[in-house]
Specification:
Blueprint: H1 2-22, H2 30-34, H3 39-42, H4 47-63, E1 70-75, E2 87-94, H5 99-108, E3 114-118, E4 121-123, E5 131-132, E6 144-152, H6 157-179, H7 181-197, H8 204-221, E7 222-233, E8 240-243, E9 249-250, E10 260-262, E11 265-267, H9 271-278, E12 283-291, E13 299-308, E14 314-324, H10 327-330, H11 339-350, H12 357-367, H13 371-376, H14 379-390, E15 399-404, E16 410-418, H15 424-437, E17 441-448, E18 454-462, H16 473-484, H17 487-495, H18 506-511, H19 514-528, E19 533-540, E20 547-555, H20 561-569, E21 573-586, E22 592-604, H21 612-627, H22 639-642, H23 647-662, H24 669-678, H25 680-694, H26 703-718, H27 724-738, E23 740-743, E24 758-762, E25 777-782, E26 786-792, E27 797-803, H28 810-824, E28 831-839, H29 848-868, E29 872-874, E30 877-879, E31 895-897, H30 906-915, H31 934-937, H32 939-953, E32 964-969, H33 975-980, E33 987-993, E34 997-1000, H34 1006-1018, E35 1037-1040, E36 1046-1047, H35 1050-1056, E37 1062-1063, H36 1065-1074, E38 1079-1082, E39 1089-1090, H37 1096-1099, E40 1109-1110, E41 1118-1121, H38 1129-1137, H39 1145-1148, ...
GO molecular function, one term: glutamate dehydrogenase (NAD+) activity
Domain NAD-glutamate dehydrogenase ACT3: 533-613
Domain NAD-specific glutamate dehydrogenase C-terminal: 1253-1582
């Protein structure tokens, strides 16, 4: 085999030689260069590469000058072993000892990746090619050249320069060592001679032993590297050692080379050297602080020899450094001088028989004692150690023998451990412990395995400064016993006998000490006991640099990476690596429980160091909280590290971010989180702003200053934020916190733990960027289970709570709904409110019941959280929530209702209110088991039906007696659709659809289908598929929406007006919406009609995008919106402008909310009786249903009147444009109306529409009607009017008659009595006067809103208008709808006129009841007089009414209604003059006839004005005319009261002038073209006349 290899090498060398020769240049024979190269190295090289290397060597030899070493590092072209270029170190010098190993030592100290290393020694002679040195070819020493070539991995230029410098330094030290070798021996001989001549006295034996040791060194047992002499002078504190002026030898010839250190500094001497020189020893043998770079890389041995003068005085030291040769380690210790004397003294100390067991054991111990340490240790310590080592023979155990170097440079520690407990890991752990405890480093270690049951490791622990710690041997041994003990035994010993014997793998034991595991035992047992997870952040201290790690203990099995990693990443960590370990914990009956430990190495995302002392607990809390899903797992958790916040504190900032997203901020949650993480100091300050604003422990006196300082600090920081987006986000945060009014953050559960859910109550008016309309108050609820909002438009507000499925914009959904709710609530006491909650933990893939139950649980949490920051009432006291700072004052009214998804939750809500002890008890949520069942009452459908009947009534169709066709959305199991389709026996339901099926009945049998619909409605659950198909008409179909396509019967296609017979379900449903029916009835969920100008996206109902049609396509005559948002508001307007008739959903289906409010107020009224024990809950629960129909009647009356009010406003067409425009302007100026939000035209669009003859539509009028009531309600509540005793009856009549008497006191003491009265009065005034009534009256009279309403009630009650309205109501279906509305209009006009006159004439002074009584008395007296004065046209009007079917008496009253307007003026005249009403009336009529005032006023009322100011001017002129008439009458009665005919007497007195004025007025009124200017002139003429009469008086 060897021959084949040699042949292969020779062939390689031959080829290389040929290649080298072919280059034409010099080259060193490849065989000479590489003959002794390693086969492994040569395998990497091709012959060509060897050739180029040989050429390079020849060049290096040629460039060497033969004097100083040549060192170069450079690449050789085409020499690329393994395809990698190399840097070639070439060294050329005279051959000398130690050269190659010294150079290799220097190279390998930095670079281990060597490809080739060769060192031929060449013999060079002039004119001859170099030859390889050998025994046969020695050559003269001067001709021997050492050539070294080392191939290294590529080096940089800097690396090459550095290595070149170091190699040259090594070569210089080799040269010095070799050159001075003989002078060093000569110097040693001189010292030996000097010491021999010293008269040692009693120390002669020690001297002789020292001499023997020096001669032993000289006899090739020591490699001498350097010598230097030092001079010793002085004594005690003045002693010093200085370098002799003579040159040193070898490496110590350089005066800067020192082999001793004090700490980190090289020194000439140390206290220990001075002690040696002052002591009795002749020699000192130890280790130098410096490693040798000559021969071998190890710490040099140091021999110090005392020098004496002729008198025997110590004069200095010869310092020798070098390396013991191998013989010093292989020779018997008792043969080596100095060692043998130590050994003899130790043996003598023990006195054992050399042939005995103990003697032989001691000899063996000393012989195999670490040789370097044997040279250095003193005899006493050696004896002690030897004795302890001998003790190990019979009983192997841990033994630690420390020896501190004389110079505090290192500690020698000999460690014995039982052999079965020793391995490399144990050795590393012991070394780590020793370097730590001695504050040093492991400079070297020497393992050995002597005979017996122990292993030995000799550690050298190097130190760099300070006094070496003195560690008791017992402590060292105790610690190392812990390191070497069997893992299981050590664990059990530490954990105690009660601890379970856990089962872990060898890998676990290698990774974790028993001590560490004992500290983790609580976590392990907790998981074994049922806790899902425990964690601990820690640093692995055993690594060179502490490594941040995380232990995750998980019960039952491994925790998926997909769960763990996101949790850590969102805390700001990157996962570097991980190990997983199974831990088996014994349980009962031999069963084991598995706990899995994931040990993860992590690093901070920003590369920083984590202070676990500061952040550890917070990080652990956040991790577990996110894992347990008590906080969200997202990037906000990074604030725990960056901003120093806790998980709960971070959750506050997360909640505000979520609110801002719901409020429409454009930035994503992640972007917001990143922004806060970018500015952690600002984030922390913003939380502090929140905290200090609501911390109940902060003194109120100091709070303003604290918050002011925080604002200033934040503002300063914000000024340094460079990004506009970041600045905007941070400022929106600050703004939202400033807009916060209260929070439950500081509240605690009964067990002291904080609330899991966060509630924040805000003032939306203060929140920047909120979309309109802005609620009065808003509560944002946030937690991992559910989040949501509750929007209220007033302190007393009410609305449903919706289960939303719109995670990203549920607030937008709720805001859209609350706009309709606000309008709808105009008829009830509370203003609009709406809530929406989004359950975040619905079971994925859960069945219907599971999802329902999870949603209900979320609803409960949502309700509890809302209640947590709501004030309560106890007796007459407001009780604030505990631990809550309130910035908004008392706010106890909080009522909820059902909505989408929560229809069955009323009892749940009431139970929660009762659980919380909330004052409303089961009035908190209406419609529960102890309330009015809306579906059973059919109240929502019945209310909408009232408005539908009005639409048809005004077309002279009575849908209760005349057949009509219907198409709709819904099915008979639904409340609104089902009840609605049972409300008339004349319904011909042609088509309908719900989310499951499509129903088409082209020619329905009204009686049979009504009965069948009733049957379906009565079923617990039903669908159109349950309809009895045998009673359907020809061509009828019931189609599943799951069908892909359907072939329609001709009859079905014709019925819905579709022009195809094969269609998809979507196409069929679209056709149904377009079908030519009388009524399109919406009773199901969804928005199906929009305007052409709207996109489907804007509608916000994606599920119905394929079905939805434009309003312009609807062919139904009437739309009834029993359900919410069946049509968009723009769609309704477009439909009406296209000739259709509809209101809005808020008008149509307000009966449901109205019923709920009545129920709540009934319960509030009865609560006092229940509290006092006068009424049991059981009795109350019997009383409530007994009043059901009366409650329904009260509610339906509002539907009747509201739709009537809209019709009467609509009837005016363009005539009321100015007053409606003025009304909108006033509300807009007061920020009480936003036209854009409510889809109302701006001024320009309004003017254009009215100019084009397109006045406001019913849906638009409905909005104005509701806003008029809302604004008026607010004004009335703010006034004293609701407290007027006159309205006690108004309060009582709000409630069913059945409880008015028995609970009169409870009603009178109702907590919301003022609001109830204000609601009723506002509704009455606006329903009868129209949307602009109050504003117009206030403009015309400068009266307050409360005065206007008071006057309107006096007008109603004093003139018996309520009776007229009731009698007109009774004409439903008996006369034409338009005629009926004309009568309403006439009555309404007089109502308005009377209100104005009552305000103008000052009639309202005094008690309301007395005023009403006075008016009634006056009216009774004046009626006969009026009858005698009626003009002929009144009789004509009466006849017209009678002909239309109006009863005679009513026709007569309506025809003469305008006469009522005379009463206030006549009353004023009578009051001012003291004349009887009859005489005042007689004079009044005389003046009117003289100046034809009546005709003038009628003509003036017909003048059309173009703007608000012209309207004001006209009103002023009319008022002046009326006022002047009164003044003239009063003056005439005053001046001529004694006359029988006072007016005529006055006339006779100034006939010419009066006749002239009368003629002028007559001319103006009879001109036929009376305008504003003429009216102004007329007013001026009469006013001047009246003033003249007053002056005359």
């Amino acid at each position: 085999m060897a021959e084949r290899l040699d042949a292969k090498r020779e062939k390689q060398f031959d080829i290389a030689a040929k290649v080298a020769a072919a280059t034409g240049g010099l080259y060193l024979d490849p065989e000479i260069l590489f003959k002794r190269a390693s086969d492994d190295d040569l395998k990497q090289y091709t012959p060509e590469m060897l050739a180029y290397a040989a050429v390079h060597s020849a060049g290096e030899l040629a460039r060497w000058n033969g004097k100083v070493p040549r060192v170069s590092i450079e690449p050789i072209a085409n020499v690329e072993p393994g395809g990698v270029a190399v840097s070639v170190l070439s060294v050329t010098d005279h051959n000398m000892p130690f050269l190659y190993e010294s150079v290799m030592g220097e190279v390998t100290s930095s670079y281990r990746d060597l490809h080739m290393a060769v060192h031929p020694i060449l013999v060079t002679e002039e004119g001859k090619a170099p030859e390889l040195y050998s025994a046969e070819r020695r050559g003269a020493p001067a001709n021997r050249v050492s050539h070294i070539q080392i191939h290294l991995a590529p080096l940089t230029t800097l690396q090459s320069a550095e290595l070149t410098k170091r190699v040259k330094s090594v070569l210089e030290q080799v040269r010095l060592t070799v050159t001075d070798w003989r002078p060093m021996l000569t110097k040693l001989d001189a010292v030996i001679a000097e010491l021999s001549a010293y008269s040692a006295g009693y120390n002669r034996a020690d001297r002789d032993e020292a001499l023997a040791f020096l001669r032993w060194l000289r006899d090739e047992n020591f490699t001498f590297l350097g010598m230097r002499e030092y001079i010793y002078s002085g004594r005690g504190l003045h002693a010093k050692v200085e370098r002799d002026e003579g040159a040193g030898l070898g490496i110590l010839s350089d005066p800067d080379v020192r082999v001793l250190r004090a700490g980190k500094d090289a020194v000439t001497t140390t206290p220990e050297i001075l002690a040696f020189l002052d002591g009795e020893d002749f020699l000192i043998v130890t280790k130098a602080n410096v490693k040798s770079v000559v021969h071998r890389r190890s710490y040099m041995d140091y021999v110090g020899v005392k020098r004496f003068d002729d008198m025997g005085n110590v004069t200095g030291e010869l310092r020798i450094v070098g390396l013991f040769t191998s013989t010093a380690y292989t020779s018997a210790a008792d043969e080596i001088p100095l060692l043998r004397s130590k050994i003899e003294r130790v043996k003598a100390h023990f006195g054992f028989d050399p042939m005995s067991h103990s003697g032989r054991m001691l000899a063996n111990t000393l012989e195999y004692y670490p040789r370097d340490d044997l040279f250095q240790i003193d005899t006493t310590l050696l004896a002690t150690f030897a004795e302890q080592i001998n003790d190990l023979a019979d009983r192997p155990r841990v033994r630690v023998l420390p020896r501190i170097d004389h110079f505090d440079r290192f500690v020698s520690v000999i460690v014995y451990v039982p052999r079965e407990e020793y391995d490399s890991i144990v050795r590393e752990k012991i070394g780590t412990y020793l370097k730590t405890v001695y504050d040093g480093r492991v400079s070297a270690y020497y393992p050995a395995f002597p005979e017996g049951g122990v292993a030995r490791v000799h550690f050298i622990i190097g130190r760099s400064g300070g006094e070496t710690p003195r560690i008791p041997q017992a402590k060292l041994e105790e610690t190392i016993r812990g390191i070497t003990a069997r893992w299981d035994d050590r664990f059990q010993a530490l954990a105690g006998h009660k601890a379970p014997a856990i089962g872990v793998s060898n890998a676990f034991q290698d990774s974790f000490t028993p001590e560490e595991t004992v500290s983790d035992l609580a976590n392990i047992l907790a998981c074994a006991g049922g806790e899902p997870i425990r964690i601990e952040f820690y640093y692995r201290e055993e690594e060179p640099d502490p490594v941040l790690s995380l232990k995750i203990f998980h019960a039952g099995g491994q925790l998926a990476l997909s769960r763990r990693v996101p949790l850590l990443e969102n805390l700001g960590f990157n996962v570097v690596s991980e190990q997983t370990f199974d831990i088996e914990v014994p349980a009962a009956e031999g069963v084991t429980t598995l706990v899995v430990l994931h040990d993860m190495e992590i690093e901070a995302r920003n590369g920083g160091t984590i202070d676990l002392e500061r952040h550890g607990a917070a990080l652990e809390e956040a991790f577990v909280s996110a894992f347990d899903e008590t906080i969200d797992n997202d990037s906000f958790n990074r604030l725990i590290l960056s901003a120093g916040l806790s998980a709960r504190e971070t959750n506050v900032l997360r909640a505000y971010a979520r609110y801002l997203r719901q409020a429409g901020i454009a930035y994503s949650q992640d972007y917001i989180a990143a922004t806060l993480d970018k500015y952690p100091a600002i984030a922390a300050a913003m939380f502090r702003l929140f905290h200090d604003a609501f911390d109940t422990k902060l003194a109120e006196k100091s709070r303003p200053k604290t918050l002011e300082d925080l604002h200033a600090m934040i503002e300063t920081a914000l000024a340094e934020v460079p990004s506009l987006d970041d600045d905007r986000i941070l400022r929106r945060y600050v703004n939202s916190i400033d807009a916060t009014l209260r929070t439950n953050y500081f509240q605690r559960n009964p067990d002291g733990s904080p609330k899991a859910m966060l509630a924040i109550k805000l003032d939306p008016m203060l929140v920047d960027g909120l979309p309109e309309p802005r609620p009065f108050r808003e509560i944002f609820v946030y937690g991992v289970e559910v989040e949501g909002v509750h929007l209220r438009f007033g302190r007393v507000a009410r609305g449903g709570l919706r289960w939303s499925d719109r995670a990203e914009d549920y607030r937008t959904e709720v805001l859209g709904l609350v706009k309709a709710q606000q309008v709808k609530n105009a008829v009830i006491v509370p203003v609009g409110a709406k809530g929406g909650f989004y359950p975040k933990k619905l079971p994925v893939g859960g069945n219907r019941d599971e999802i329902f139950n999870a949603g209900r649980d979320a609803y409960k949490t949502y309700i509890r959280t809302l209640l947590s920051i709501t004030d309560n009432i106890s007796g007459f006291d407001i009780v604030p929530p505990p631990d809550t700072v309130r910035l908004d004052g008392d706010d106890p009214y909080f009522v909820v209702a059902a909505d989408k998804g929560t229809a069955t939750f009323s009892d749940t809500a009431n139970a929660l209110a009762q659980e919380a002890g909330f004052w409303l008890d089961d009035a908190f949520a209406s419609g529960g088991s102890a309330g009015y069942d809306h579906k059973k009452m059919g109240i929502t459908a019945r209310g909408a039906w009232e408005t539908v009947k009005r639409h048809f009534r005004e077309m002279d169709i009575d849908i209760q007696t005349m057949p009509f066709t219907v198409a709709g959305v819904g099915d008979m199991s639904g409340d609104v659709f089902g009840n609605g389709m049972l409300l008339s026996p004349k319904i011909r339901l042609v088509a309908a659809f719900d989310h499951r099926d499509i129903f088409i009945d082209p020619d329905p049998d009204m009686d049979k289908t009504l009965a069948e619909r009733q049957r379906l409605f009565n079923l617990a659950r039903s669908s159109w598929q349950d309809f009895d198909k045998t009673i359907l008409s020809k061509g009828a179909m019931i189609i599943s929406r799951a069908s892909k396509s359907v072939t329609l019967t001709p009859e079905a296609a014709s019925a819905i007006g579709i022009d195809k017979t094969v269609a998809t379900p979507f196409e069929i449903m679209t056709a149904i919406l377009r079908s030519p029916v009388d009524l399109l009835w919406f009773g199901g969920i969804g928005t199906y009609v929009k305007s052409l100008a709207e996109s489907d996206a804007a509608v916000g109902d994606r599920a119905n995008d394929p079905i939805r049609i434009a309003a312009e396509e609807v062919r139904a005559k009437v739309i009834g919106e029993g359900a919410n948002l069946g049509v968009t508001q723009r769609g309704r307007i477009a439909y009406c402008l296209n000739g259709g008739r509809c209101n809005s959903d808020a008008i149509d289906n307000s009966a449901g909310v109205n019923t709920s409010d009545v129920e709540v107020n009934i319960k509030i009224a009865l609560a006092a009786a229940m509290h006092d024990g006068r009424l049991t809950r059981a009795k109350r629960d019997q009383l409530l249903p007994s009043m059901t129909e009366e409650v329904a009647a009260l509610v339906l009356r509002n539907n009747y009147l509201q739709s009537l009010a809209i019709s009467l406003t609509e009837r005016k067409g363009t005539a009321n444009g100015l007053e409606l425009a003025r009304f909108m302007t006033v509300l807009e100026s007061a920020k009480q109306l936003n036209r854009k939000v409510e889809t109302l035209p701006d001024d320009v669009a309004f003017s254009e529409r009215y100019a084009a003859g397109k006045p406001l539509t019913r849906p638009e009028i409905g909005v104005l009607l509701s806003y008029a009531k809302i604004v008026l309600f607010d004004a009335l509540v703010a006034s004293q009017l609701p407290d007027d005793p006159y309205f006690a009856a108004t309060l009582a009549e709000y409630f069913p008659a059945k409880m008015q008497k028995s609970h009169a006191a409870d009603i009178a003491g109702h907590r919301l009595k003022r609001e109830i009265v204000a609601t009723v009065l506002a509704n009455e005034a606006i329903n009868r006067g129209g949307p602009a009534f109050a504003v117009s009256m206030m403009d015309a009279t400068a009266a307050s809103a409360s005065d206007v309403v008071r006057a309107s009630i006096v007008a109603r009650d004093g003139f018996d208008l309520a009776r007229l309205w009731t009698e007109t109501d009774a004409l439903d279906g008996r006369i034409s709808g338009q005629m009926q509305n004309r009568i309403y209009e006439e009555t309404g006009h007089v109502f308005t006129l009377l209100t104005r006159l009552l305000l103008k004439t000052g009639t309202l002074k005094g008690d309301t009841s007395e005023i009403v009584s006075r008016v009634q008395v006056a009216l009774k007296k004046l009626k006969p007089i009026f009858a005698s004065q009626m003009p002929p046209e009144i009789a004509a009007r009466k006849a017209e009414y009678q002909e239309a079917g109006v009863p005679e008496k009513l026709a007569e009253e309506i025809a003469g209604l305008l006469s009522l307007a005379l009463v206030p003026e006549i009353m004023q005249i009578a009051d001012r003059t003291g004349e009887p009403l009859a005489r005042a009336a007689e004079s009044y009529f005389a003046v009117s006839q003289t100046f034809r005032v009546g005709r003038l006023l009628v003509a003036g009322s017909r003048i059309v004005t173009s703007d608000h100011y012209e309207n004001l001017a006209l009103a002023r002129s009319i008022d002046q005319i009326a006022s002047s008439r009164r003044d003239i009458v009063i003056a005439a009665l005053a001046d001529y009261g004694k006359e029988k005919l006072p007016v005529q007497a006055w006339h006779a007195e100034d006939r010419v002038r009066i006749n002239r004025i009368a003629e002028e007025l007559s001319g103006l009124s009879d001109s036929g073209d009376l305008n504003l200017a003429r009216m102004t002139v007329a007013a001026g003429l009469l006013t001047d006349l009246a003033r003249d009469m007053v002056r005359k008086d």
